[in-house]
Structure formats: C-alpha cells, structure tokens
Specification:
The complex is a heterodimer of chains A (48) and B (412).
Chain A lengths: L1 H37 L2 H7 L1
Chain B lengths: L2 H30 L3 H23 L4 H21 L1 H27 L3 H22 L1 E3 L2 E7 L2 E3 L2 H17 L3 H17 L3 H19 L2 H21 L1 H11 L10 H13 L22 H34 L3 H25 L17 H37 L1
Antiparallel strand pairs in B: 1-2, 2-3
Helix pairs in contact in B: 1-2, 1-3, 2-3, 2-4, 3-4, 3-12, 4-14, 5-6, 5-7, 6-7, 6-8, 6-13, 6-14, 7-8, 8-9, 8-13, 9-10, 11-12, 12-13, 12-14, 13-14
The chains are: A mainly alpha (48), B mainly alpha (412).
Chain lengths: 48, 412
Amino acid sequence: MKRIRSNILRVSLVLCLLFALLVGYGMYSVNREGNRWFSSSMNSALVR
Amino acid sequence: MTNMGKRRKMMPLLIAEVAFYCCAFLMLLARTGNLQCLLLAVVVPAALCLSTYVVSRFFAADRLLLMLVNFLCALGILMLYRIDPELGMQQTLHYAAGLLVMVACILFVKHMHRWPLLILLMMGASLVLLAMPVVFGREINGAKAWVVLGPVSFQPSEPVKLVLLLCVSYALSRRKRVIAIAYAGVCLGLLMLQKDLGTALLYYFTVLIMLYSDTGSLMLILLGLAAGAVAAYLGYSMFAHVKMRVAVWQDPWKDADHYGYQIVQGLIAMVNGGFWGMGLGAGNALRIPEARNDYIFAVIMNEFGMIFAVVVIAIYLLIVLRGVMIARRSTSLMYSLLAVGCIGLLAMQTFVIIGGIIKLIPLTGVTLPFVSSGGSAMAASMGIAGLLQGVDARNRDVLYEDEHIAESGVGA
C-alpha cells in the first residue's frame, strides 16, 4: 500500500500540472487570440 | 476534531455559497424581470443547505467535497437558466436526480461485499449498453453515441463510466491485469465504433492512471501511450470529423464563419469577458452554438471573467486533491484504485473540455462535469462523486473499527 500511495502522489502532481497548464495557457491564449480578434476583419465589420 | 467542530468550520463556506447564489438569482431577476428567478433565489440555496446537511449527516459524506460539488451544480443551474430559463429548470431536476444517484453510489460502495458475481454482471451489462448505440444509435455532431427509447434519450457511455471504474479497480486489486486491460480495450473499441472519440479518450486516460497507480511501471505507461498514439492516428485517418476538428484547432480563423465558427465565437466571448467579466445576464456569449453543453465554460468566462474562471478551475483542483487524500487514506487496494480512477476521470474530463475551449488541444465533445446541461452527464458526474464519497465512508468505518479495537485492547 505504501508504494501505491506514492504512485497516487505522483499522479496527483501530474494532474496539478495539467490544471496549471490550463490556467497559464488560458491567459496566454485569450490575450493572443484576443489581439487577433480585435485586429481581425470580423471585428472591424461589426464596428462599422 | 469532533463532528460539531468540523460542521462549524465548514459553515462560512456554506454561507458564502448560499449568499452567492441568492444574490446571483436576484441579479437575474433585476435584469430579466422573470419571477421564476425569485423562486430559484430561494430554492437553489435551500437545496444546497439541505443536501449538504442531509447527505453528510445521514450518509456519512465528506462535507467539503459535497459543498464543492454542490457549488458547481448550482453554477450549472444558474448559467443554464441565464441561457434559457427552461433549461435551467430542467437542470434543477437533473441535479435532484443526481443527488439520488450520489446517495445510491455512497450506499453501494459502503455496504457492498459480494463483488465477484456483481462485477461479472456489470461487465456484461456495460458491454451490451455500449453496443446499443452502434446498432441503433442516433448520430449527433459526428458521433453515434445516443440511444432514443420513446420520449427518453440517453448516452450509454455515461453510466458505463461508473462500471468501468468499479470493474477495473476490482480486477487490478485481484491481480487480474490482463482482464482489466482486455475489458477496457473492448469498451474503447465499442466507443471507436460509435465515433465517440472524446469519451474514448477519457476512458483511455482513466485506465492508464489506474494502471500506473497500481503498478508504478513507467514502461507500461509508455506502451499504453504508444498504443494510444496509434489509435489516435487511426481515428484521425478514418474519421472525417476528427480531421476537420484538428484543422479547425490549428487555425479556426481560416474558416471563422463555418467550421471554425464555434471556436472563434468562444474565443471572442472569453476575450470580451476580460478579467472581471461583462456581468451576469449582460454577456454576449449566446451566439456560441453549443453554449449549453461543451461551451458553457466560455459563457462563464464571458459573464464572470477570467478571475472567476480561475476560481472554477481551482474548485475542480480542490475536488481532485480531496480525492487524492481519500485514495491515500484507504487501506484497501480496490477502494484506493477506485478513488484514483474517480479523480483521474473527473480531472481528465475537465482538462479535455476546458483545454478544447481555450484552444490548447483539439475540441472533443465531452461535457464539463457537474455544470453542463444533460441528465446522463449529471448522473454520471454525481455517481463518480458518490463512489468517491463511498470510499471515504468506508475509510471512516475502518478507522472507527481500529479505534474501537484499540480501546477494547487498552480496557482489557
């Protein structure tokens, strides 16, 4: 059981990293794609 | 700490939850003038309090886990009501049914002792269930994953998630790894035949996580990942809708009015939300075609902003960490693996859908656990939370028995 407990801990670390990736990439993606959205022709068409 | 002490410690969290939803529904009332909001401003917080008290008091559920799950379910009701009031009312019923499923799963795990015959029966029934959509399923968004029986339609792969967790954890705990892998392989094959690659991905990662927790073998995981890569390539080359989703993921702006419409609208909604959001009921995310299902996270981000979206992700992470504690506390291999499977499935489902929405990975049609609309999805998510709670209840029973034995030993 001791070995299984340490395996579970490793799994939980990987899952935490995945969640951190979601937050980090989410902020990056929304800003990057946001810039693309604000400079896209779709947006200018809507503004007009 | 005594039960009363624990209850008092959780009280501020429960009050915060109740105040949040009361204010949110009153805000919707002010915006829409719909009197149903007033009813929900009373019913939803009351349901949160009642379920937290009743389920934890009478079915020995973990209060923190219950409160976190309840928060997400109520968020689903709020957002769906905002999208379409009828959907919100339906989701309230799904939540009530989900609570019953959760209680049933707690009692099942806590009191079930005769596993071998039951596991065999469940394995057979689950394979029949998964084969049903292949024979007479209905195709929605490229996947033939739905079965329609008269007025009722459901997705068999959702209840089978619970069976998969129970069967694989039982087989692994009895050192029958080949049976566990073969059963999971047949399930994956049936899901591939349904073209439901999103759910297949979840099953695959869940089994891989359980296998790693049991064996700790990196070689096995590398082999599993290699097999998964081959299956993903086959899926890509065989199914047109998968090819299209990958192309749209690479550059949704290329065809923003047609195939890339959903991803682009989701990104626009999230950008418009910014850090603080546009305000409940004041957002513009309703142009997203699947706002009620896959894309509900984009609606949350649009109206509540990035800060609140991070809080929602943190709540999922807290559920996972609570599950890790439960898995590590268990003294039985089967229940420990069952708990790991539950958190693995919930975590991967959250990662796959939010990752798809923010364009980290190609979008696959899975729901956001506890939040997205749908009865089968809600029942499955609540069932998984119930299995986790059941393992916790068993842990407490074992602890109580040990303490009892120790006390009688000291007395003697």
